[in-house]
Amino acid sequence: MDERVFGRSGQRASAVGLGTWQLGADWGDVDDKEARAVLEAAAESGVTFFDTADVYGDGRSEQTIAAFLRGRPDLEVQVATKMGRRVDQIPENYVLGNFRAWNDRSRRNLGVDRIDLVQLHCPPTPVYSSDEVFDALDTLVAEERIAAYGVSVETCAEALTAIARPGVASVQIILNPFRMKPLGEVLPAAREAGVGIIARVPLASGLLSGRYTKDTVFAANDHRTFNRHGEAFDQGETFSGVDYDTGVEAAAEFADLAPDGYTPAQLALRWIVEQPGVTTVIPGARTPGQARANAAAAKLPQPPAKTLAAIRDLYDRRIKAQVEDRW
């Protein structure tokens, strides 16, 4: 698979990576055997970038990745984790002492002395403007605890503030055919600064797969049940912030746009891969088949111009008014 470079850090990532939130928690139950099989299928399909976080299953996702990679020393996989969501979300908790403690825990979970990439995990907005926070992150690099650092953001404004920081290697942001606002300013700014873009929630929590209807019922421990209106964390993380009924209807239209040889999910992923400035996109997968199909999207031809125009029209008609003024 094509690999792309995080400009500032020089690190590399496959155009399609693997998000591993679902291997830890909040997407229903996934057993350890199935989780290992997903990681294996992704790696065998050319995926060289795994994204995780210390709160995914309270460390379970990190530990699962570590166990898998111990058994596959032949693989060269970059692992990015995130930190900051294990405490109350106030700026005062984003200090060097906490960073070291969180980093120690993640390094133990991942079984490494130095983590490839550590990202602040959607912290409170004032954190992005704190010199002390980024000085502390620079200290983690100097101490060789981490090779590079980035941020995971909720809003385009947060992304632009982070991109202006000289040490930020990457910005992780929601980007998909139902969340196009980052195309306007964020991606061009990242390209100019040499900051990598990690596109998350690429399938709008599965909506863009075209598999769901208004009658679909998700498990009680699935965030698509318990965070549909932002009850547990930012609403934008679930269905990209789109009202579910609207999202299902728009997703059915999107599915009809898929050219021959594409699934709707692959069309969404390929659309993201084609956006100038995107380094990697990190779809999740709950089965090996899903992991292989996601990776295969990187090898599909560019969608026709008429398809791209229809995707934009669908967004403008059905989605834009719900999301652009919030994120």
What does this structure look like?
This protein is of the alpha/beta class and 327 residues long. It contains eleven helices and ten strands. Helix content is 37%, strand content 13%.
Q: Please list the strands of the largest sheet in the order they lie side by side.
A: 3-4-5-6-7-8-9-10
SSE arrangement, N to C: EEEHEHEHEHEHEHEHHHEHH
Low-confidence stretches: none
Give the beta-strand count: 10
What is the radius of gyration computed over CA atoms, rounded to a whole number of angstroms?
18 Å
β-strand percent reads 5-15%
How many DSSP H or I helices? 11
Percentage of residues assigned to helices: 25-40%
The class by helix and strand makeup works out as alpha/beta
Q: Biggest β-sheet: count, sense, barrel?
A: 8 strands, parallel
Q: How many angstroms separate the termini?
A: 31 Å
Shape: globular
**pLDDT average, as an integer?**
96
Protein traits:
about 325 residues, alpha/beta, eight-stranded parallel beta sheet, two-stranded antiparallel ribbon, 11 helices, 10 strands, about 35% helix, globular
Sum this structure up briefly.
With 327 residues, the chain is of the alpha/beta class.
Topology diagram in text:
Layout: E1 3-5, E2 12-14, E3 18-19, H1 32-44, E4 49-51, H2 60-70, E5 78-83, H3 96-110, E6 117-121, H4 131-142, E7 149-152, H5 156-163, E8 168-174, H6 186-193, E9 196-200, H7 223-226, H8 244-256, H9 264-273, E10 278-281, H10 288-296, H11 305-323
Parallel strand pairs: 3-4, 4-5, 5-6, 6-7, 7-8, 8-9, 9-10
Antiparallel strand pairs: 1-2
